[in-house]
Amino acid sequence: MPDLDIAEVARRAGVPASTLRFYEEKGLITPTGRRGLRRQFDPGVLERLALIALGRSAGFSLDEIARMFAPDGRPRIDRQVLADKAEELDRTIRELGVLRDSLRHAAACPAPSHLECPTFRRILGAAASGAVTAPGRRTGRPPSRP
């Protein structure tokens, strides 16, 4: 299959050409050359872009994703890194569950004021201690272990 120009790669991958240029700058993808001023890519770049998209969806940084490729461009994914990320996602899911349940309680609480509700006051205390945080926002404390 012939090389694809940057516009075709962008269309097929569903990302803007600027993203492809940024990924190139970060060393995540490499063009095979140019035709005029347009970068050309091996069709295999689409699979690599899919792996990058999957990694981003899982919460990996671009630097972490870059380390998942060998110098020859083939995937070299450390299974322990994947297991650790899965554990991190489990913690995030638990934290989101607590936040969801807290919001549902606050929305349905029959107390005249949220501050008069014992459950809501416990939620406030947990938030003040850092036990309830929005995922991705850490208080500087080490994450709790399940």
Protein described:
By secondary structure, this protein is mainly alpha-helical. Helix content is 53%, strand content 6%. It has six helices and three strands; from the N terminus they run βααββαααα. Strands 1-3-2 form a three-stranded antiparallel sheet. A hairpin with a 2-residue loop joins strand 2 and strand 3. The protein starts with a strand and ends in a 17-residue tail after the last helix. 12% of the residues are buried. The C terminus is likely disordered.
Q: How are helices and strands ordered from N to C?
A: EHHEEHHHH
Largest sheet: 3 strands, antiparallel
CA-to-CA gap between the ends? 49 Å
Largest sheet: spatial strand order: 1-3-2
Structural class computed from helices and strand pairing: mainly alpha
Low-confidence blocks of residues: 138-146
Helix content: 40-55%
- Structural shape: elongated
Total number of beta strands: 3
Report the β-strand fraction as a percent range: 5-15%
Radius of gyration: 22 Å
- Count up the helices: 6
Mean pLDDT: 87
Outline:
By secondary structure, this protein is mainly alpha-helical.
SSE arrangement:
Layout: E1 4-5, H1 6-13, H2 17-25, E2 33-35, E3 38-41, H3 45-57, H4 62-66, H5 79-108, H6 118-129
Which features characterize this protein?
6 helices; 146 residues; single chain
